[in-house]
Amino acid sequence: MADTKDQLVALLNEQFDAIVEAWIATQKDEGVRRSDLFSAKETRAQTVRLLTAFRNGVAEAETGEDLDLRADEWAELRETLSDLGRERVERGMTPTEMATFVAALKSPLFHSLRERMAGSPDALIEEVWHITRIVDAFALYTTEVFIAERELVIERQRTEMLELSTPVVQLWDDILALPLIGTMDSVRAQDVMENLLEAIVERKAEIVIIDITGVQTVDTQVAQHLLRTAAAVRLMGAECVISGISPRIAQTMVQLGVDVGEVVTSGSIQNALTYAFRKVGVRIAAEETPKGSRV
Amino acid sequence: MSDAAALFHVEDVLLVSIRDDIDDTDILDLQERLSESVARRDVQGVVIDISDLEIVDTFVGRVLGQLAKIAKLLAADTYIVGMRPAVAMTLVELGMTLPEMRTALNVTQAVRRLRESR
To answer: Each residue of A264-292: pLDDT tens digit?
Structure first.
């Protein structure tokens, strides 16, 4: 195997620029040179960087049967791939395009080798197999990087969504409101409860209105979560009002046999707010002269 | 006499402050002292401050409930104040919602509510 490896290293050293050109050309032929996403200059810089890392890796690492891209010698290549992968995910490239981009390296390498080793077909085939293995491992690794990057994006969006979905707003002194939107699962319910209890301590609230107008379905589980939140709120020394119970949800809750116990409920957030005002001793009065009658 | 819980008389209110390191014997001891104090003096309300308490288990939860029932029998209302969010969540998980207990955010609020309910 040593021979084939030396051949490849020599080839990469001698014809580096030519291979870069041919690689870029192949990317273009394969239709993965996304000129809409990357300028020609960027593509060239990336290609050169990748090929340099590839050459250094090939020169130092084990490339035969024991090829392992996780070895230390490939660290430079892995890092380069991660950087490029991240950049490409952000700009909206697909995994296929990314893998094809890497695999496009095979064609120029094979062409150059055919010229170099025209006299010894056996050695040529050996060399082709050798390169195929490395470049394939390389392309597979690219896909892994790609997926990992995507998962990071998904995870980030999930946390953002969780934060967005549990906003506690202060409506008045001592009155907090928590408008719930979407579906309630156990994780979210736990999150809602934690945020709400922290907010009660922080803002010394006496009344908390949980508005479920935007909750799509209320089943026994969701109802349980709500009632548990209400119980925890009460233990903290505040009172919980559940508002936004639509006629349909009221019917479902009764059919499911959900007992809200002493928790105050109301149809609209307006009623809930009126109740809360009364509880904290605030009164809202209409202006004495109605607006329309002013001169 | 352990100092894991302290009792103060302020006018007709009995303030109880519980420290974090209270153990099972201490809390039973507190139950004893509390019932005697409520019965001996003319106490209208009991306010138990548990803001130092970081962990509660079923035992502490149950004894707290019992304190409230004892005070009620002796004609005093019990408020529990300053419960931490984590403690509230644990109690709810354990299914102990302490229905016999009144709650308030802090001592001031509890005393105000006691006065209002009079």
So the answer is: 999 899 999 999 999 988 988 888 876 66
Residues of B in contact with A206 (CB under 8 A): 105, 109
pLDDT of A295 > 60? The answer is: no
**Mutant choice from A190, A236, A239 vs B, greatest count of B C-beta within 10 A:** A236
CATH of B5-117, one of 3.40.640.10, 3.90.25.10, 3.20.20.140, 3.30.750.24: 3.30.750.24
Beta-bridged to residue B13, according to DSSP, are B10, B45
A84-122 pLDDT, tens digit per residue, is: 877 877 777 787 888 888 888 888 888 888 888 878 888
Q: Tell me whether residue A55 is in a domain.
A: yes
Tell me the torsion sign for CA atoms A122, A123, A124, A130.
Answer: positive
Domain boundaries, chain B: 5-117
Interface contact B73, partner A, CB < 8 A: no
Find the domain containing A144 and state its range: 2-160
- The answer to whether the beta carbons of residues B77 and B71 sit under 8 Å apart is yes
Residue A284's nearest CA partner among A294, A271, A295, A293 is: A271
Structure tokens at A142: 């690219």
Per the CB < 8 Å rule, is A235 touching B91? yes
Question: For residues A102 and A139, is the Cβ–Cβ distance under 8 A?
Answer: yes
In chain A, whose CA is at the least distance from the CA of B100? A235
User: Which tokens hold the place of A74?
Assistant: 């490939």
Is the Cβ–Cβ distance between A174 and A204 less than 8 Å? yes
Place of tokens 């490395």: A134
* ipTM higher than threshold 0.85: no
Instruction: Please give the pLDDT value at position A1.
Output: 46
Mark yes or no for CB contact B103/A231 under 8 Å: no
Contact assignment for B81 to A197 by CB distance below 8 Å: no
pLDDT, tens only, A62-92 = 776 677 777 777 888 888 888 887 787 777 7
Q: Which residues contact A212 (CB under 8 A, 6 or more apart)?
A: A180, A218, A226, A242, A243, A244, A245, A249
Task: Spell out which residues of chain A touch residue B83, defining contact as CB-CB under 8 Å.
Answer: 235-237
Using the beta-carbon criterion (under 8 Å), do A235 and B84 form an inter-chain contact?
no
